Amino acid sequence: MEFPFVVFHELPACRYYVPLHESEDNGVSATLFRSSRRGDELVCITTWTQSGVPILAHPKEGNKTDVKTENASRHGRLGNRIQCASFSPSGAELAMVNDRGYLYQISNLDSSPMDVKRLATSKELTTKSDSFAMSYMTTTDEDTIIMAWVDAATGVANIKRVPVAAQGDITMSAPLMPQQPPSPKYELPESSRDPPRVHELPREAEPAPVKRNSKPAVELPTDPPRFLSRFRGITR
């Protein structure tokens, strides 16, 4: 009793004894638990037997209520041989498929009588199928019931989609995908919106052209000095 259970305990108030009378009786076909924070938990038990009426049991009080159709001429008889059952995501509705292939939706689960309506018919589900599965599915457009099973004789897989009108609040069981936060936007003040001014660097002054002095650096006197006067008139 270790796998797949982690923590478990028995609900004595929900014990349901079902005798087997015929060879076609196949015992319990579904056991569902509807959790609730308000304290109105429910346990649904269905069987594929002749005498096992589908019931809703309260785990604490132990009260049991039979699930059956009051007006059999309009919606047909739900019966005791149930293929499978499934709670809606809100827990306000319950779906069942019987041995005639009739799909029923049961609402007003806390009242008596309950509201039992037939939604669809599948002629392939007239015998007990071990591969049958059923679940509510919530989409953006509508809420549907998905049924899937495999025909043991032919090996053909069947999938049936039945739209339903949802009642109550639909809670998503799958976690939502995380969304990326919007990127922050920074707005500059008006004073800083003007384009930056371009400051021109001062130009370096070009060096002035050097003026060439045509005069000799040393000016010779026009009159020769006296010590050269004695050499006048001497030629080589």
UniProtKB/TrEMBL annotation:
Basic and acidic residues: bias regions: 187-206
Domain DUF7099 positions: 2-163
The organism's place on the tree of life at top rank: Eukaryota
Species the sequence originates in: Ajellomyces capsulatus (strain H143) (Darling's disease fungus)
One Pfam family cited in the UniProt record for this chain: DUF7099
Positions of the UniProt region annotated as Disordered: 173-236
Name by which UniProt lists this protein: DUF7099 domain-containing protein
